[in-house]
Specification:
The complex is a heterodimer of chains A (about 260) and B (about 350). Chain A has about 260 residues and is an all-alpha fold. In chain A, about 75% of the residues lie in helices and about 0% in strands. Chain B is α+β, with helices and mostly antiparallel strands and about 350 residues long. In chain B, α4 packs across α5. The longest helix of chain B is centred in the middle third of the chain and has 18 residues. Classes of the chains: A mainly alpha (about 260), B alpha+beta (about 350).
Chain lengths: ~260, ~350
């Protein structure tokens, strides 16, 4: 019973900011000591939605976050698989190295990589921003997939192979469905982390790539609360939709265990 | 003419030898049991045959073709594991059709084949079930149908029945025996259970500590194990050490006359062939009963004779008393020589 109370309190803490955004975004003429705003108005919010700069930033954020999710799964899957399913010298060390980016400040990483990316012609490109986002994203993807591989029974793949399935067929028809919940969770995590990146996007994007967090940041320094609130709503809506879509996979156990009869 | 041939197969993990120079030959359509205690390397042989593991040395040939470089999915050898490993995200029908789909067989043909196979394993009408909705025995039957769907050249069974209840195990043994009779598929079953080998396979290879110690018709292995290791595994009444002089074998338990091979140093006899207190039989040796247990139909006694413990099984009567001294008689025609 007490756990349930804690869950509700947590839910409240998480939901209150969203409620505040809603109020600030749509309330007009709400001055002290009025208990309630004078009127509700969606004009500002709609004007924001129609803003070409915002639309462009939204689109670029979407392309980057989607691309980062894909790339992170592409690189994270083999990494997690090898780290969990094979034993070799230095395995622990390599696992540790994957987590190094989480302790190094992204300003340091970003400034350091800026020069490299400039030389490679990746600075100021969508691909460059995607690649640099992989640095904070990959540790979480490898960790999420790794915990599933730790409980993964490779005999399902062996069984498929002896039945005549090629390695490609085994990957798409056995490994991916078996690991689907954790692939979805890892992909969503990658999307969330990439979507909220500010410093790395700024440093590598070099002003040519504008993402939503940048608009949010400049609005925040401007101090117009209605503007901040409506931008924030636009910022979180795709994330809420995404979480809603994959809710059934969140917290579901990794497969690989033999289902109970 | 051998169909499946294993030549000098050797395998070790981290300096521990698992298999040592394994040689086996199977005729097409033959049913072989690979018997042995757990950890003897039986399953490793199947994994090597199926292509899941590679041998350190040795060759595998199927219909003369060298299989070593062939990938698992191209070998046409299906391995059935101890667990059914049904894909939990597929229905029963999709599971059975899996191998056919991998071979790009037309959907209509797959459906037809699945229905036939479900009929064969007596699970008709279960197409749309999920594996999780089946009992352990039903899951294993679906796994069997899935293996048969691709019409493998060789079927490998790795103790597929050992995790099932005794009743279901016996009924599935029946299913496997019937399928082998009907389909005549070359089959190897791995088991640690002698009775399973006897019930299913015409021939049994006994594997102990990574070496083959016997490869005989199953009944012969049971009745006349060829050496000490085999005799200990299948269980004999006594192993009698001694020396052969002419046609007389001298031992602590007495002299035995028979047509034994030259240089025989040990004889053995099955526990049910040793007679207790048979006044008509000579010679005999005095023995004291140490323990007894009822096996159903028979009593089993452990007796001390000279410095040896002997096991005797006697058809069900009123049991003999523990501590009692009796005369044991070893009918010469039931004694057989061991190779070591």
């Amino acid at each position: 019973m007490s756990y349930r109370i804690i869950v509700w309190v947590l839910a409240l803490i998480l939901l209150v900011p969203i409620a505040i955004f809603l109020v600030y975004a749509f309330a007009q003429g709400w001055f002290f000591p009025a208990l309630w705003p004078e009127r509700w108005d969606s004009a500002l919010f709609l004007r924001q939605l129609a803003d070409p700069q915002l639309r462009r930033a939204f689109g670029q954020s979407l392309i980057i976050a989607t691309g980062v999710s894909m790339l992170a799964l592409m690189f994270g899957y083999p990494a997690a698989r090898v780290l969990e399913l094979q034993t070799f010298r230095g395995r622990g060390l390599i696992y540790g190295l994957f987590f190094l980016p989480t302790v190094v400040p992204s300003v340091a990483t970003g400034i350091g990589l800026n020069i490299v990316f400039l030389r490679l012609g990746l600075a100021g490109t969508l691909l460059g921003v995607m690649l640099v986002h992989l640095i904070p994203v990959l540790p979480y993807v490898v960790l999420t997939l790794g915990s599933s591989f730790a409980r993964y029974d490779r005999n399902y793949e062996h069984q498929a192979a002896v039945l005549g399935a090629s390695p490609w067929f085994v990957f798409w028809r056995v490994s991916v469905p078996m690991l689907l919940p954790s692939l979805v969770v890892a992909g969503v995590l990658a999307f969330l982390i990439s979507w909220s990146q500010y410093v790395l996007s700024l440093l590598i994007g070099g002003g040519k790539i504008i993402t939503l967090p940048m608009l949010l940041f400049s609005a925040a320094s401007g101090g117009n609360q209605s503007l901040i609130a409506s931008l924030s709503l636009i910022f979180i809506t795709p994330l809420l939709l995404l979480l809603g879509l994959v809710a059934r996979y969140l917290g579901s156990p990794a497969t690989g265990a033999t289902p109970r009869p | 003419m051998s169909y499946l041939q294993l030549d000098q197969l050797t395998k070790s993990y981290a300096k521990q030898t698992i298999l040592q120079n394994i040689n086996l030959k199977l005729k097409q359509g033959e049913f072989l049991a690979l018997l042995g205690p757990s950890g003897s390397g039986k399953s490793t042989i199947l994994k090597i045959l199926a292509g899941i593991e590679a041998p350190d040395a040795g060759e595998i040939r199927l219909a003369k073709r060298l299989l070593n470089p062939v990938a698992a999915h191209q070998r046409e050898i299906v391995l059935l594991f101890q667990q059914p490993y049904l894909f939990p995200f597929l229905s029963v029908a999709e599971n059975i059709g899996f191998g056919l789909k991998a071979r790009k067989v037309a959907k209509k043909l797959i459906d037809q084949k699945v229905a036939e196979l479900l009929d064969l394993v007596e699970l008709s009408g279960m197409q749309q079930r999920k594996p999780q909705q089946l009992s352990g025995g039903q899951q294993q039957r679906v796994a069997l149908a899935r293996a048969l769907a691709v019409q493998p050249k060789v079927l490998l069974l790795d103790e597929p029945l050992s995790s099932l209840d005794p009743e279901i195990r016996v009924s599935l043994q029946g299913v496997i025996a019937r399928l082998h009779r009907e389909l005549q598929m070359t089959t190897i079953i791995v088991t640690h259970d002698l009775s399973e080998a006897l019930a299913l396979a015409e021939r049994t290879a006994l594997l102990i500590n990574g070496s083959l110690v016997a490869d005989l018709p199953s009944i012969e292995l049971f009745e006349r194990p060829p050496n000490r290791a085999a005799a200990q595994f299948v269980g004999v009444g006594a192993i009698i050490a001694g020396q052969l002089q002419g046609t007389t074998f001298n031992s602590q338990l007495g002299q035995f006359n028979g047509n034994f091979a030259p240089n025989t140093v040990s004889l053995a006899i099955r526990p049910e062939h040793i007679q207790i207190n048979n006044p008509a039989s000579q010679p005999s040796i005095a023995a004291q009963i140490l323990e007894r247990r009822y096996l159903g139909e028979r009593w089993e006694y452990r007796l001390q004779a000279a410095e040896q413990v002997i096991t005797v099984r006697e058809a069900g009567q009123t049991p003999r008393e523990i501590g009692q001294t009796v005369d044991l008689h070893f009918p010469p025609q039931q004694l057989f020589a061991l190779a070591d």
